Amino acid sequence: MTLTERTAYIKGLCEGMGFDKKDTPEAKIINALLELCEEMALEIEDIEYDIGELADYCEELDQDLGDVEEVLLDMDEDDEDWDDEDWDDECEGDCDACDICGECEYCDDDEYFEIVCPSCGETVCFDESVNAEELLCPACGNALGTIVDDDEE
What we know:
This protein is mainly α. It has helices at residues 3-16, 25-73, 145-152; strands spanning 112-116, 123-127.
């Protein structure tokens, strides 16, 4: 039995007992409580309906996001289970998500550039698609854009 059905049942019991026609203080309180219960039951039904709609919408978004991740990350089901041990020992997977170092089997052989950060000594690899002015050292966070400009001249 739903909340609105239960409220209607209790309201019917009170009407059968004549509480809806009495002007006693007790009858007034009971009638006011019944009206409150009826409003709350209707509001709860509306909320439950909205929650169901939102759950369905979230499920659709989750499926769409999965499709987008698959396209953007070009992931197969096998790729989702990579561990640290899957990376080549020389690279250790620490070169900008291991996509430009060219030193391991997982990297592209595209041309890349290296600079050494003057602050911390970290070798930073980047390719031509990276805007050199926005380049930051991944180890210390210092801007490397001015160093790149000086090296290119």
